[in-house]
Amino acid sequence: MVNRKELNPEASPQAAFGARMRRFREDRGWNQETLAEQTEYSSQHISAVETGRKPPTLPFSRRVDRAFGTSDGSDSFEQEWRDIRHGSLLEGFPEYVGREGRAVEVRLYEIGIVPGLLQTPEYARVLAESAVRRGAITPDQAAERVSFLAERQGALVRSRPPTMLVVMDESCVRRQVGGPEVMSAQMDALLEFAQRPNTVLQIAPFEMGELRPFDLPLYLLTMSDLSVVAYSESQIQGYLERDTASVLPLLSDYHQLQAEALSQAASVAMIEEVRKGTP
Q: Among the CATH numbers 2.60.40.420, 3.30.70.270, 3.90.25.10, 1.10.260.40, which is that of 13-86?
């Protein structure tokens, strides 16, 4: 084959994705133009993914699965794409996200920034772009991060959505992210969230001081079998706790946090003050 680049699937997970896609294509006797027609992408795009010059995306992976008939298996290209992306996530987080979309009750505590599940796209984009400027992630990874968050939020919009109990440290609403317009829209989104029938939103004020039981973000999920898992993370490490004996004390501390935090009415009043720009 003329100009056929030899692939090294050992080079990276992205290279392995491209090599596997080429193998599936050639096993069917297809050229790149045929796969391009099947996926509604250009042959240049197919070539770029196969040779690792362009990373696969979720929509692309799903179209490849439809073309090859691999959508329903554990070896689907979508699953491989998720494995690639999850490789850069903190330990425990991929499993947490999988459970999050099936939980019947979600409890969140966040410090410093609005919890991801409550972020507007603009707020999330500002945070991702900031990480790009710091050199922490690439622009493509930033776009994937925002897309991934939207996917997580979408998983909670169901016919029977989970109960969501959210406590935010006061710093989450006081910290300016993205300027007045972004913050104004984010505060509006928080106020709308507080009005939903399946949600409770509270703020842990600075005045709580030493009564605040957690110094790091915490996420607690209650599953349909009433089991509870906990996920916490630092800047560089995440940890998913499944052991009931270890999770129950965290759940107890979360109840104490809710008792000491502002009521939802008082929390809404504080958000409205921030929304108006008052100190």
A: 1.10.260.40
